[in-house]
Amino acid sequence: xxxxxxxxxxxxxxxxxxxxxxxxxxxxxxxxxxxxxxxxxxxxxxxxxxxxxxxxxxxxxxxxxxxxxxxxxxxxxxxxxxxxxxxxxxxxxxxxxxxxxxxxxxxxxxxxxxxxxxxxxxxxxxxxxxxxxxxxxxxxxxxxxxxxxxxxxxxxxxxxxxxxxxxxxxxxxxxxxxxxxxxxxxxxxxxxxxxxxxxxxxxxxxxxxxxxxxxxxxxxxxxxxxxxxxxxxxxxxxxxxxxxxxxxxxxxxxxxxxxxxxxxxxxxxxxxxxxxxxxxxxxxxxxxxxxxxxxxxxx
Length: 299
Description:
The radius of gyration is 33 Å and the shape is elongated. Among the domains are: 65 residues, Alpha Horseshoe (Serine Threonine Protein Phosphatase 5, Tetratricopeptide repeat), CATH 1.25.40.10; 55 residues; 78 residues, Alpha Horseshoe (Serine Threonine Protein Phosphatase 5, Tetratricopeptide repeat), CATH 1.25.40.10. It is mainly alpha-helical. The chain contains 16 helices and no strands. Helix 7 runs antiparallel to helix 8, helix 7 runs parallel beside helix 9 and helix 13 runs parallel beside helix 15.
C-alpha cells in the first residue's frame, strides 16, 4: 500500500509539475488581456512578470511593448517590440517599435519601420505626412511630394501637407506649383506669414493683382507688419515697371514705400526703391536725401 501510495503521489506530482506552469501562464495571459482592455498597464506588466508565454510569446512581448510605450520607456519598449517581431513579423509591435525609435531620435530605424508599416497596408495620413516631412528635410523633394499627394487626395484641405508640398515645389524650382499650394493654404486659414509668403511667390510670377490681394489681407490682420510693408514697397516698384504704368501707380508706390521706410529705416533696399520712385516724380532732391539716409544693411 505504501509503495502504491508513493507511486500515486509521484504521478500526481509529475502531473502537477507539468500542468501548473501552463495553468499559471494561461491565467497570467488572461489577466493581461483583461488589463489591456482597460489600458491598465500596471496590471499588464504585473501579470506578465516572469512569464515567457510559450506559444503566445509574441503576445507577451507585444503587450509589454505596448505598455512600455504608454509609460514612455522607449529603450525597453524597443527591446520588447523587437522580440515580438522576431516571432511575428506582422505583429502590431512594429507600430510600437516605430514610435520608440522615433522618440529615441533614431530616425533611420524609425523610417525603416515606417516603410514596413506601409508595405503591410498600415497607412495613415499622419504617418504619410511624417515621412513627407522627413523626406523634405533631406531635400528629397519628389519623394516628399509623392507622400503629400497621397495625403491631399484623402484630405484636400490638410494644411500641413500643403505646406510641405509647397516647400518641396520651391526646392525643385517650380514657383508656379509652390505658389498654388501656398495660396491654397491662405484660402483655408489665412495668416500674416502665409499671406506674405504667397505674395512673395506671386510677384516673380507676375501675378501682381493676386500679390496685392495677399498683402492687403496680411496688413488687414497686422497693419504694422514690417515684412509685409517692405514687400508691398517692392511690389509697388514692380507695378511701376509695367509698360502701362502711369502717374497714379507711381504715386501709390511712393506712399507705400514711405510707409515702409518709416517702419523699417534699416532697409537699404526700401530706401533705394523709394528714391527710384521719387526720381520718377521729378523729386530729385528728395530722392537724393533718401539716398543719403540709406543705411548699409539691406532688407
